[in-house]
Automatic annotation (TrEMBL):
It comes from the Bacteria. Belongs to the MoeA family. Pfam families: MoCF_biosynth (PF00994), MoeA_C (PF03454), MoeA_N (PF03453). GO terms for molecular function: metal ion binding; molybdopterin molybdotransferase activity. Signal peptide: none annotated. Catalyzes the insertion of molybdate into adenylated molybdopterin with the concomitant release of AMP. Pathway: Cofactor biosynthesis; molybdopterin biosynthesis. One of its GO terms (biological process) is Mo-molybdopterin cofactor biosynthetic process. One of its GO terms (cellular component) is cytosol. It catalyses: adenylyl-molybdopterin + molybdate = Mo-molybdopterin + AMP + H(+). This is Molybdopterin molybdenumtransferase. Its cofactor is Mg(2+). InterPro entries: MoaB/Mog-like_dom_sf, MoaB/Mog_dom, MoCF_biosynth_CS, MoeA-like, MoeA_C_domain_IV, MoeA_C_domain_IV_sf, MoeA_linker/N, MoeA_linker/N_sf.
């Protein structure tokens, strides 16, 4: 059994960027990173563009101008302005080549077809020049840029339809346990509804990992070996739920050994989630999580999350940690470090009732975990504690 810090370091050390290429439609590329530089194929803006609603002018030495027309966003006509003439113009509309300034409408007095400026203005005022944002052939976004909504909007404005991105891992979730039945089936004596796969799948979806398949393993050794071999060969990451303990019908550990999966650690000194396995086979990573739901989710956040971030070459690979003042008391049993479900709010944290590894009800309303080191036996109201913020 190893410490939490040792387990975290082993996951970090053995997890690497995937560095495989994929092609995505721009609208489905959110959360990915660019695999290669993207260069603009147009000037942006592609024409001289008005920065606001107002009047485009051909400047002269007088504050009075003759109004000869209008240009809206999307118009393609080109009014020809003589000195002292103006056209009504709107934000984003093309500025006529014969205009050399735009004045905002709030600084103009209008009298029929005549306008009078209330201020003196300079040449090129409020005109966005061609290529102000990016020029044709220039680097638009460099390789490695994470495609945020703003990045996707920017590339879309340049007419980009598809992008090359770093591929996200293919992930398999395996459920073990003959006691598990699916929702909608009859819940006969001795059976429970399966929840871990849906929980883990949605934890992955929450971080924009969508290439996820779910598999069921019966409590049979040969079938366990066969199914594990299949999914390890087909995926970058395998997450097993349950079956990793040492009961007579827990076959996962023996099956992984037969398949020559290299064990990197098994059992971590923590509560909940002590019986967690982490291993690899070639460049494939395998986590076997405890079957108890709260323990499985805790291990996902503490260890699987790190591997996911490393796959995508992200810099922040652990969930954020902060200090907060406890508004609850808690007494720990045993000497293992403990992760406590909690609610964090503006510098204070409340430790919740129901910390059992089998219970998800408390986890369902948590937005944080309080980390209680092995040196602590209790937490008192007003104590400063370590808080791990959970994804929302």
């Amino acid at each position: 059994m190893i410490s939490i810090s040792e387990a975290i370091q082993l996951v970090k050390h053995h997890s690497f960027p995937l560095l495989k290429k994929a092609h995505k439609p721009i609208e489905k590329s959110g959360g990915y990173k660019l695999y290669e530089d993207v260069f603009s194929s147009i000037n942006m803006p592609p024409f001289r563009q008005s920065a606001m609603d107002g009047y485009a002018l051909n400047l002269h030495d007088n504050l009075a101008y003759s109004l000869i027309g209008e240009v809206k966003a999307g118009d393609s006509h080109q009014p020809k302005l003589k000195k002292g003439e103006a056209v009504r113009i709107f934000t984003g509309a093309p500025v006529p080549d014969s205009a050399n300034a735009v004045i905002m409408q709030e600084k103009v007095l209008v009298d029929g077809s005549k306008i009078t400026l209330q201020i003196q203005i300079n040449i090129n005022l409020n005109i966005r020049p061609v290529g102000e944002q990016v020029k044709n052939g220039d680097l638009a976004l460099p390789k490695g840029t994470k495609l945020t909504p703003a990045a996707i909007g920017y590339l879309s404005s340049l007419g980009v339809q598809k992008v090359s991105v770093f591929k996200k891992p293919t992930i398999a979730i395996l459920n073990t346990g003959n006691e598990l039945v699916e929702a909608g089936e009859a819940l006969t004596y001795g059976k429970i509804y399966e929840s871990n796969s849906k929980m883990l799948q949605n934890a992955l979806y929450n971080h924009k990992y969508y290439d996820v398949t779910i598999h069921k393993i019966e409590d049979d050794y040969n079938k366990t070996v066969s199914k594990l071999n299949e999914v390890i060969n087909a995926n970058d990451l395998v997450i097993i739920s349950g079956g990793i303990s040492v009961g007579d019908y827990d076959f996962v550990g023996k099956a992984l050994e037969e398949l020559k999966v290299e064990p990197l650690f098994y059992k971590v000194k923590q509560k909940p989630g002590k019986p967690i396995f982490f291993g690899k086979k070639d460049d494939k990573l395998i986590f076997a999580l405890p079957g108890n739901p709260a323990a499985a989710l805790t291990c996902f956040y503490m260890y699987v999350y790190i591997a996911l971030q490393k796959f995508m070459d992200n810099s922040d690979v652990e969930l954020p940690r902060i200090k907060a003042k406890s508004v609850s008391k808690f007494t720990k049993s045993g000497d293992r470090p403990q992760f406590l479900k909690a609610i964090y709010n503006t510098g204070e944290v409340s430790i919740l009732e129901g910390q059992s590894s089998a219970m998800l009800q408390t986890f369902a309303v948590s937005n944080a975990m309080v980390f209680m080191d092995e040196s602590l036996s209790s937490i008192e109201i007003g104590d400063t504690v370590d808080v791990i913020l959970l994804p929302q």
